Amino acid sequence: MEKRFPSAFVISIFLYSIIFSTYTYAQTNSIINSLQSKIDQRILDIKNLEKEIAEYSKQIAELGNQANSLSASIKSLQLTQKKLETDIKVTENKIIEKNLVIQQLGSQISDKEDNIEDNKRIIERSFATMNELGTKSLPELLLAKDSLSDAWNSLEEISTIQKNLSDHIEQLQQSKVNLEANKKATEKARVELSTLGRQLNDQKKIVMETAKENNFLLKETKNNQTNYTKLLATRQQQKEAFEREVDSLEAELKIAIDPTLIPASGSGVLVYPLNTVRITQYFGNTAFATKNPQIYKTGSHPGIDFAAPIGTPVKASLSGVIVASGDMDQSGGGRCRAYGKWIMIKHNNGLSTLYAHLSLIGVVKNQAVITGDIIGYSGNTGATTGPHLHLGVYATEGVRITNLSSSSYCSGVLYPLADPKAYLNPLSYL
C-alpha cells in the first residue's frame, strides 16, 4: 500500500501553533498588562511620598540651625515623626510593588513553561514525520506520485516542515533562556522583598523611639526654654568630661601602627555609607592624620559627620565582620555623652570603620556584612547637636574594644579606644 505524505499534518502544525500561541499570548499578556498597570501606580505613589519626605528633611535641616531652641527641637522631632511615618508608607508601597512584580514574573514563567512544552510536542511530531519520510529516497518519492506536480508539492511540504521544525527549535531555545532570566529576576525580587520586610519592622521601632524621645524632652524641660538651655549646658559638660577621660586612656595605649598594613591614601577602598552625602564636619588634626591630604585643622574631630535625618539607612562602607556594637545612652543615668548607638566593622585590609549616633542597630556581633548592606539607621543618640551620622576610620591594629569599667560617666560600657595614631581621615579612603 502506498504511503502518502500527510499534507494535513503541515496544516495542523500551523493551525495548532497559531491558535495555541495566539490564545495563550493574549491571555498571559492581559494578566501581565493588568499587573504592570498596578506596578506603575505604586511607583507613582512612591515618588509622591518621596517628595513629601524630601520636604520634611529640608524643614528638619533648617531647624537644625536653631539647635538651642526648645520649640525648634520639639518641632524637629514632630517633623521627624511625620517623616518616619511617611518612610513606612514608602516601604509598604515598595513591598506591594515587589509582590506585584513577583506575580508578573510568575505569569511570565508559567507562559514560558507552557511555550516550552508546546514547542517540544510540535518538535517531536515533526521529527516523527521527518523520520517517516526519510524511509524513502528522492527517486522513490517522485515515482510514488501520480504527477510531477504532486511530487513537487511534496518536496515543498518537506521543506516547509523542516523550516517549521527549525523555527520551533529556535523558539524553544529562546524560551529556555527567557525562563532562566525570569527565575533569576524572581529570586532577586524575593531577596529584595525580604529586605524590605526587615526595613519596615525597623522603621516602626524607630517611630516608637522617636516618640519616646519627644516625651522625654518635654518631661525633662517641662516645656520651658530656660530648663532646656540648662539641659544642653549639662550635656555639654558631660561630653567634655568624657572626652577628657577618653583622651587620657588613649594616650596610654601607645600601640605601634605599621602604615604598610593599611591601604594607601586616595585608594578609594571605601564607599559612602549614605545614599545622599552632605558632610557637616570634617576630620580633625591628630599626629597620624597630618600625613594624610584632607585635614580639618580647627579641631580634633576623630571622623567625619554626615547630615542625615533620623531613620536614614546606614550602609557598610566595605565588606567585613561586626566586631562590636553598643548603646552608650543606656549607661551612667543618661550622663554618658558619647557615641550613643554605634557599630564597628573590621575589614580584611587593615581598616576598621565606626558608625555612630544611630537610632537603631541592625546587626549583631560576629555577623558578616558586604559592602552596601544596611547595618542600621541614622539617629540623634549620644553627644549630638542634631541628627547625623558619624563615620570613623581606624587602623585596625591600633583600636581596642574596651569595657570602660573605671569611667565616671560611662562605667561598664563598651567603647572603641584607639591609639591617637590609629585615627585615619575617612576622606583619604572614600
From TrEMBL:
Q: Per the record's keyword annotation, is Coiled coil included, yes or no?
A: yes
- Asked if Coiled coil is a keyword of the record, the answer is yes
Superkingdom assignment: Bacteria
Q: Which Pfam families match?
A: Peptidase_M23 (PF01551)
| Residues in coiled coil | 32-94, 162-189
What InterPro entries does the entry give? Cell_wall_metabolism_enzyme, Dup_hybrid_motif, M23ase_b-sheet_dom
* Domain M23ase beta-sheet core per the UniProt entry, residue ranges: 300-395
Query: What molecular function terms (GO) are annotated for this protein?
Result: metalloendopeptidase activity
**Keyword annotations from UniProtKB, A to Z:** Coiled coil
Name listed for the protein in its UniProt record = M23ase beta-sheet core domain-containing protein
